[in-house]
Write a structure and sequence with these properties.
This protein is mainly α. The chain is built from 22 helices and no strands.
Length: about 475
């Protein structure tokens, strides 16, 4: 592959998948209240439409690396886009909440293969020293999705029909299939390891039991006995998987990766941070529409502001990380991001829209810096031959944490409504939920404290004061 192709074409092609996935998620978040009215369902139950997709990602992402090694990156990436488009069509034709949830889960199967495999192609194409720049370059086009999503979803929901939000994926997906066919090499391993079927079943059942149990606990639409059984089955399956992974030479989720300090901190700290942030796409549109009485279109015109801040951050991320280093950025910036999340709870129906817009833009900047730092530090100590396992593991925990975040936000909101003895959401119910989520995100900073000051220096280029730089040959 020519040297210019990974730097120019490959990130842009992969970004087609990221664009389609991010556009779909942000458009759907804005339309949730309208979908609830269409299905005559409780808006709080619509979180299942978000978590079904994220949970499907978490279950199937662990096998994405092996599937790409076995069948080739181009074949898998192209098939993933087709599955995602088919799931979008099914979502658009859904006539009930259960049908939409199932269609979103099927759509997640495509997403599970699409983005991790795309990232894996990129990771195998660039040196570690260029990884921060490549990651930022990759996600710039993808950030257009979150920017367009809220206002586009609000416009479609307000003036057309919410079903069209899923069908707009079709032309984007067709373009992605064409570009993948023309420009992505079918990179594959000659002799991939034997697939861990038992590990895949155990991890899938374990995650299913725990996540569905968490999603249904205390909501009243599933008997308590079933919830307890789900938790018990999930806990047993996870325990069995941990035991299995220690013996199997190539487990579907390689827990030995957690021995690397930077990987462990990124996974655990990133999980906690995303729990708080992951609930925002669910809670914020509900607050603006159900709590403040805004239309989906006006709500979308406000919520897209976080993507504007994130887009600006991508132009400065590598310089900030190089100057301060990963450890300092993750600790300080994590607290700043959590603080802005807590500020969402201070919004009132009388808050000027320019003030909401400004805060969302600034918070989007710091939040995106945290995501870029966490996502890049994961690979700081990672040998190139283990990139596939690391990508699958990291992508799985990212989607699982976002799923838990949406479920946590819905649960907190449900508890507030129940505490008032009501069944309808009010504006005052959102503040405690945002405050609690901000606290959870802030706790993530404790995970990064033990990291050395020069953690990830090979990637960031940061050298703490007093650290000598070893001259390289030719310098």
């Amino acid at each position: 592959m020519p040297a210019s192709r990974p730097q120019m074409l490959v990130p842009l092609i992969i970004a087609c998948g990221l664009f389609m996935e991010n556009l779909d998620s942000t458009v759907l978040s804005t339309a949730l209240p309208a979908i609830a009215r269409s299905f005559d369902a409780n808006p709080l139950h619509l979180n299942l439409a978000l978590t079904a997709y994220l949970f499907s990602l978490a279950v199937f992402i662990p096998i994405s690396g092996w599937v790409a090694d076995r069948f080739g990156a181009r074949q898998v990436f192209r098939a993933a886009i087709v599955i995602f488009m088919a799931g979008s069509v099914l979502c658009g034709f859904s006539s009930s909440l259960p049908a939409l949830v199932l269609a979103r889960a099927f759509q997640g199967l495509g997403g599970a293969m699409m983005v991790p495999v795309g990232r894996l192609v990129l990771l195998r194409s660039v040196p570690k020293s260029e990884l921060v720049r490549a990651m930022a370059y990759l996600t710039v086009p993808a950030l257009v999705g979150p920017m367009l999503g809220p206002p586009l979803g609000g416009f479609i929901t307000t003036y057309l029909n919410w079903r069209w939000i899923f069908w707009i994926n079709i032309p984007i997906g067709l373009l992605g299939v064409l570009l993948v066919t023309l420009f992505i090499e079918n990179v594959r391993e000659e002799r991939p390891p034997r697939f861990d079927w038992l590990g895949f079943v155990l991890s899938g059942l374990g995650l299913t039991g725990l996540v569905i149990g968490f999603e249904t606990a205390g909501r009243g639409f599933v008997p308590t006995q079933i919830v307890l059984v789900l938790f018990a089955v999930g806990a047993v399956m996870v325990t069995l998987y941990v035991s299995h992974a220690r013996r199997w030479p190539h487990p579907v989720l390689d827990l030995s990766l957690l021995r690397l300090s930077t990987f462990r901190a990124s996974v655990v700290g990133g999980f906690l941070f995303r729990i708080g942030i992951g609930a925002t796409p669910f809670l914020l549109p509900l607050m603006l529409q159900l709590g403040f009485g805004l239309s989906p279109f006006h709500s979308g015109l406000l919520t897209f502001a976080t993507a504007m801040g994130a887009l600006f951050m991508k132009t400065t991320a590598s310089r900030i990380i190089r100057f301060f280093g990963f450890r300092r950025v993750l600790m300080v910036n994590g607290l700043i991001s959590a603080g802005f999340l807590g500020c969402y709870g201070l919004f009132q129906p009388t808050t000027p829209h320019w003030a909401i817009l400004t805060l969302l833009i600034v918070s989007g900047f710091f939040r995106s810096l945290q995501f870029t730092s966490v996502n890049t530090l994961i690979y700081a100590e990672m040998p190139r031959e283990r990139m596939s396992q690391a990508t699958s593991f990291a992508s799985m925990q990212q989607q699982l944490s976002l799923s838990v975040g949406v479920g946590t936000g819905a649960l907190l909101l449900h508890l507030m409504v129940t505490a008032r003895g009501d069944t309808h959401v009010a504006a005052a119910d959102f503040a405690p939920a945002f405050f609690a989520l901000a606290l959870i995100s802030a706790l993530s900073t404790l995970i990064f404290v033990p990291l050395p000051a020069d953690a990830g220096a090979e990637i960031s280029g940061h050298r703490p004061r007093g650290t000598a730089t070893v001259p390289q040959p030719g310098e």
